[in-house]
């Protein structure tokens, strides 16, 4: 049975990681779901590249951070924060593609 990540995550957010990078955070409700995602490497560079329609080399890191049951992704911003044409100076509205992630239980 497929489930959506929103059913097992308590926080899904995005934010700036400096003017040229964006950080995506997914914090899980339980150790069980964090371990499932970590073991299967469900959140990976290939998935993020696909969701954000960007080059794989623009996904700088995917870190499974055990102390907070979280996955942290750092990626290059397509337009620097505050540059002309940029629409989200704080990077706080860039998490929407993550909301549709599905996984097998």
Low-pLDDT segments, ≥5 res: none
How many β-strands, per DSSP?
6
Number of discrete helical segments: 2
CATH fold assignment: Alpha-Beta Plaits
Oligomer: single chain
Q: What would you say this structure looks like, in words?
A:
By secondary structure, the protein is an alpha+beta fold. The protein has one domain: 2-Layer Sandwich (Alpha-Beta Plaits), CATH 3.30.70. It has helices at residues 31-40, 45-51; strands at residues 2-4, 9-16, 21-28, 59-65, 70-76, 102-104. The model has no long low-confidence stretch (mean pLDDT 96).
List the helices and strands and how they pair.
Blueprint: E1 2-4, E2 9-16, E3 21-28, H1 31-40, H2 45-51, E4 59-65, E5 70-76, E6 102-104
Antiparallel strand pairs: 1-6, 2-3, 3-5, 4-5
Which tags fit this structure?
alpha+beta; 4-stranded antiparallel β-sheet; two-stranded antiparallel ribbon; Alpha-Beta Plaits; 105 residues; elongated
In short:
By secondary structure, the chain is α+β, with helices and mostly antiparallel strands.
């Amino acid at each position: 049975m497929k489930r959506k990540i929103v059913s097992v995550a308590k926080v899904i957010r995005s934010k700036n990681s400096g003017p040229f990078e964006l950080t995506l955070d997914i914090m899980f409700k339980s150790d069980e779901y964090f371990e499932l995602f970590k073991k299967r490497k469900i959140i990976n560079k290939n998935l993020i590249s696909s969701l954000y329609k960007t080059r794989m080399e623009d996904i700088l890191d995917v870190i499974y951070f055990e102390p907070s049951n979280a996955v942290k992704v750092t990626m290059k911003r397509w337009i620097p924060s505050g540059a002309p044409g940029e629409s989200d100076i704080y990077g706080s509205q860039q998490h929407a593609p993550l909301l549709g992630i599905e996984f097998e239980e």
